[in-house]
Amino acid sequence: MTKQRDSGFPGRDAIVAFIRAQPGEVGTRVIAREFGLKNADRIELKRLLRELADQGAIAKRGKKIAEPASLPPTLMADITGRDSDGELIAVPAEWDEVESGEPPKIRIHVPRRPQPGTAAGVGDRALLRVEKPQTDEGPAYRGRVIKVIDHARTRVLGIFRSSPDGGGRLVPVDKKQAGRELNIAKADRNGAEDGDLVSVDLVRSRGFGLASGKVKERLGSLASEKAVSLIAIHAHEIPLVFSPAALREAEAAKPATLSGREDWRDLPLVTIDPPDAKDHDDAVHAQADPDPNNKGGYIVDVAIADVAFYVRPGSALDRDALTRGNSVYFPDRVVPMLPERISNDLCSLVPGEPRGALAVRMVIAPDGRKRSHSFHRILMRSAAKLNYAQAQAAIDGRPDDTTGPLLDPILRPLYDAYAVVKRARDERDPLDLDLPERKILLKSDGTVDRVVVPERLDAHRLIEEFMILANVAAAEMLEKKALPLIYRVHDEPTLEKVHNLQEFLKTLDLPFAKSGALRPAMFNRVLAQVRGHDSEPLVNEVVLRSQAQAEYSAENYGHFGLNLRRYAHFTSPIRRYADLIVHRALIRGLGLGEGALPESETPESLSEVAAEISVTERRAMKAERETADRLIAHFLADRIGASFQGRISGVTRAGLFVKLSDTGADGLIPIRTLGTEYFNYDETRHALVGTRSGAMHRLGDVVDVRLVEAAPVAGALRFELLSEGSLAPRSRRQGASDAQRATAKAHPGRIPGRKDRKPGKGKPGKARKGKS
User: Fold this and answer.
1) Residue 26 CB neighbours (<10 A)
2) Strand ranges (DSSP E) for 382-500?
3) Distance of alpha carbon 741 from alpha carbon 678, whole angstroms
4) In 3-state terms, what secondary structure has residue 473?
5) Residue 176: count of CB within 10 angstroms of its CB
6) To 5 degrees, how large is the angle CA 201–CA 202–CA 205?
């Protein structure tokens, strides 16, 4: 029922409360109807909604309005400016505007006497403690700076290209800056050679011609090996060199002995990893449980390298590890969290060598459920180093010289135990997305040889399930001991994202009935309906986009994707700092000796650590993805004009993103090149729809494209669409006003209201083949 006003215009609080009470997005008309606003009042309503959106109290997505997504109590944020009162305003450093709309604003409280390291300014990145204010006046959040992580950047990273006059140009490595070269005068090149990766200070920016810069630092050369990953390392400021103090500590470390440990050296634990693994930090063993009360059950042992024995809290190694947060894996190198003396030597569970480990022994019932577990600090000796394909081949009847003697005593019990554990896994029904991952294989010169999709084997699933069991056991043990820890959490999808998914599935005549609490099984039922059909990749992609992103937190709110109430990372402290914290907490809680979590560590201090390492994890993911993009762009740079098949992997108002089927390369088809009509962005269908022809280009569609341009330095590709679109329902072709249609007719492909999308404007120049 329409709510009539008693007098005057509705208050801000009332409008915000109404928007937040809606399950999805609402339009201005719905809000006006709710409060009985007539035409004269609607102008004021629109002004107020813009003000609320600017403050972050609501989120605007085109003409639709919704409640902004909530923020965790501790997060990394970028300080973007000041408000009218002169107070600093920040936004979350990690935010998906396509999925979640405009990021919420955070007003930063600055104390009269700030603590050292907390004095922040515009352009800085800082770790914040945030909370919602009691009133809806002003920004949606207030924050306090815990620590400034990175000060405002005034430099541009790029590749120096020399010119005959002795100067040169900078080709930026950032995709967003692709095509915006800088001029470098001869006096400002600072010894840079053609092909060098350099950082440049912006000297001046002019209204015409190229802006100018001065080379500040030479960071490497593209002529050298591993240069492509070097770009991402410097672009994301990933620490590449360990501090001298950390290296001294690593070199001085001694191998673990039996002192204070249980002797498990005769237990035939084995490592099973990818064939190119550089570190081997987890080993497994299984045997049938001899207990007559658990007939058909198993005892599963998971042993993890005892990193906490070498990396003590507050040490130089510890400080470097926290700064890195995790190891970063590129096709051509690994940037480890810890020096090689630790990660590839003392903590690598190599066969035949005694190694310290923290182990969990789990008793599994015949139905696959864990009956009990216990943790042990041990000295072990790995019986063998296997890779996934090798272990699987042995089980499938093709053992080799290494796996032959291990088949009956070690491998068969492992697979039998996995078969039992899988029963509980299937009953738990975690989210079952089918999203194959590609792997780039390089030649000896560091260039791309080919891109493959590794086969998913039972050997992979076996290790994965045993590691999940161990992680759950660690979280349960620490909760039982009432000790602080860092959880691995994954929130359930927001009501808005679930609503959007329901609307999308309706377009495919797929039901998504939500009754009661949200469970992964609801999504799995949808995925099962499309398995084997043409729409399978599309539905998998849209379901994935409806999910929240996993992160680290000192507060437990469960892991939705795995359908687990408590979960913590325990199984890889060589490459993840979160696991090292969990190891230290277990050592403290169980009285296992040296390297324990300090008494000074609290949930509050660990929440700050969790926020930092969540950011370093995102940083690593971006760096790895961008390096893959650059390698593939180099690989395809000499194939301009060639045709490829792919799938539409993203739909935005700017155009279509296409992922090629053979290499997994991503590229853009600008909307201005789609045709001679106006294309309307249909958010529900994840599609661009021609308003005259009804031609629809939709997320997940298989398309043929032509490669028009490759920018290897930025990792950017531009395609031309060769395929015809499918025919959209007639109702979906509407939505453009008469003025918009007139604009479309005069300027084919242009988005109304976007002056920068006229055909022929802003097109980057054609890349030189084979050049970077």
Assistant:
1) 18
2) 384-387, 439-442, 448-452, 487-489
3) 7
4) helix
5) 8
6) 175
CA distance 286 to 300: 4
Which of 279-288, 467-476, 676-685 has the least mean pLDDT? 676-685
The pLDDT tens digits of the residues spanning 42-89 come to 778 887 887 777 666 776 655 567 666 667 778 888 888 887 777 888
Say whether 169 sits in a helix, a strand or coil: strand
Distances (CA, A) of 15 to 49, 67, 558: 9, 11, 33
pLDDT at position 691 over 80: yes
d(C-alpha 572, C-alpha 553), whole Å: 17
Using CA atoms, how far apart are residues 93 and 77, in angstroms rounded to an integer? 4
Half-sphere exposure of 284 (CA within 13 A, CB side): 30
Q: Which of 52-56, 166-170, 478-482, 555-559 is predicted most confidently?
A: 478-482
Distance CA 365, CA 295 (A): 8
* Token couple for 348: 């690598």
Q: What is the tens place of the pLDDT at every residue in 122-170?
A: 878 888 888 877 665 667 788 888 888 776 666 688 888 899 988 898 8
| Amino acid in position 544 | L
- Neighbouring CB atoms inside 10 A of 692's CB total 15
Q: How far does Cα 514 stand from its chain's mean position?
A: 27
Q: Which of 648, 644, 696 is nearest to 669 (CA)?
A: 648
Q: How far apart are CA 387 and CA 389, in angstroms?
A: 6
Strand partners, 363: 299, 372
Q: Does residue 93 register a pLDDT over 70? A: yes
Overall average pLDDT of the 298-307 stretch: 98
CA distances from 342 to 14, 68, 305 (A): 58, 44, 10
**β-strand pairing of 716-721 with 655-660:** unpaired
Structure-token pair, residue 702? 């298989």
Of 174, 318, 152, 320, nearest to 623 by C-alpha is 174
How far apart CA 329 and CA 621 sit, in angstroms, is 9
DSSP H or E stretch at residue 577:
helix 577-590
Using CB atoms within 10 Å of the CB of residue 705, give its burial: 0 to 12 exposed, 13 to 18 middle, 19+ buried: buried
User: Could you give the count of Cα atoms lying within 13 Å of 280 in the half-sphere of its Cβ?
Assistant: 25
Q: What is the largest CA-CA distance in the chain?
A: 87
- The pLDDT tens digits of the residues spanning 597-642 come to 999 999 989 988 998 899 899 999 999 999 999 899 988 988 999 9
Q: Is 562 helix (H, G, I), strand (E, B) or coil?
A: coil
How far does the chain reach from its first CA to its final CA, in angstroms?
A: 63
Task: Tokens for 74, please give them.
Answer: 């501790």
Structure tokens at 676: 């001679």
HSE on the CB side for 702, CA within 13 Å? Answer: 8
Q: In the structure encoding, which two tokens stand for residue 563, read together? A: 């359908």
Q: What are phi and psi of 392, to 5 degrees?
A: -65, -40
Measured CA to CA, the distance from residue 83 to residue 170 in angstroms comes to 35
675 token code pair: 């045709």
CB–CB of 120/145 below 8 Å?
A: yes
Distances (CA, A) of 61 to 28, 67, 102, 541, 619: 12, 11, 7, 21, 26
What region does 79 belong to: left with phi over 0, alpha with psi -120 to 50, or beta? beta
Nearest Cα neighbor of 536 from 431, 433, 689, 429 is 433
472/590 Cα distance (integer angstroms): 17
Q: Is the pLDDT of residue 771 over 50?
A: no
Residue 542: count of CB within 10 angstroms of its CB:
19
Q: Which H or E element spans position 216?
A: strand 211-221
> Of 71-75, 232-236, 356-360, 464-468, where does mean pLDDT reach its minimum?
71-75
Most confident of 185-199, 228-242, 414-428: 414-428
